[in-house]
Design goal:
It is a single chain. It contains 19 helices and no strands. Keywords: Cell membrane, Ion transport, Membrane, Sodium, Sodium transport, Symport, Transmembrane, Transmembrane helix, Transport.
Amino acid sequence: MEVLSGYVLWVIGILLLAYFVFVFWIGKKGSKHSKSMVGFATARGSVSPWIVGASFAATYASANLFIGVPGLAYQYGTSVLWYTLGCFGASWIGLLLFAKTFWRYGKKFGGVSTLPEWLGKRYNSRVLQVLVTFLILFNVYYIVGQNVGLATIFETVIGIPYFWGIIIGVSITILYIGLGGAFAQLVSDGVQGILMAITSVLVLISLFWTIGGGLNVFGTLSTKLEALDPALISPINTAGPYNSVLAIMAVQFLLFSFVLMPHLLNKVLSLETEEQLRPFTISAGLVLFLISTLMVIGGLAARVLAPALSSADQAIPLYIMEAFPPVIAAIMIVGIISAILSSTDSLYLGVTSSIGNDLYKVVAPILSKNKLSEDELDRRAVKVAKGSLVVVGLLTLYISLDRPDSLSLLIQFSYSTIISGVLAPIVLGYFWKKANRYGAIAALLTGAILYVVLTTQNLIANIYLAMLFSSIAGFIVMIIIGLLTSEESARQNVLLKDTL
């Protein structure tokens, strides 16, 4: 694929510079909100719920929906639309079911800042809080996926070497998150979510001149895909991850559970009042629908335009460059770059907030010889969180230098590990009176460890099925332990009622 040249590169350069100035300005503006741990992690009440909702969708989308999943559509055809169905269907339903209860519990617990803290207070367990923090470190691989997606765009479209693309992406993100914390992340991602929705609509409209067929454009697209390979229009493609009815059900289960990812669920903690949940969920659902559906169609169209790409992850950049005039393509490419950053910054914020809030604030009082005041402990926790940005950034940079075979599969491995561990403690923590700390800890360890073993040892090749079975195992273990330790459950329920 040829790199854009001449004045178009200047357009991209100017737009990127303007975007970077914007996010640094937002970071500077948000610095006043990030002096406390609550402000750094959530910026609670400082951002409009409509913007927080768009930020949720942008964070959800990331490089996975803009690069990785369209790449899978390029490879495996229309069977990948099952993933899209889960994104705007199952995930949004999950958000509607979980958001209100999670917000109410968080508020009544005294205003928690992170998912590990929420679980720690729900089960009255510092051990669980710390364990969830360590599990969240699997998001390092998720960040690596974002870095790779960004560097792929830089390399494919602009001609910047992959190595320097990684360095640029990591450096920019940690700088403005370090400055403005959650405020910078929410505002910048909200704007990016709106831009991503516009880009997705333009991709859909472009089918009328790239694929043709008038109002029958989707029929024409199907015909052209079938001519390349009949498997590309099959609802189940045995060559890919959507290779059975059970696998498709597992995908829906995964995406229903995906809203429980810490960097997404934390958005709910940014809302000040319960009334803000309504505009938040409407905004999140609308933007997510546009982003998740239309970019995958772009991946299918790219297969028709360029059926022999060396890397499927190049599908969307190529399609945009082929479908639009150079200047419009340049603007859309910058939109994709900002889209990738929108998830990266949330992940950095989620990981480092947990390091400061759920690791340092829990461990420091135990190890410190002198008793720390709450204010001093909080100030130190913020410094630890911001300092860990550099450490985590360097770690992800190092891992990113070895480009993975599939961007989408790497990202899905990371979040499936986390979901396998936290799903049972969160869900049963809502609905089951016998849920207790022992069962939650056992479920966390069972689900996460089993998923890693099943996937790394190739015991189950399909990552979606591996997550489904691992999560079920977590539920079974937690229920058994809850039944065996009913006295502990009763004591915790008394404590919970006192808290609420």
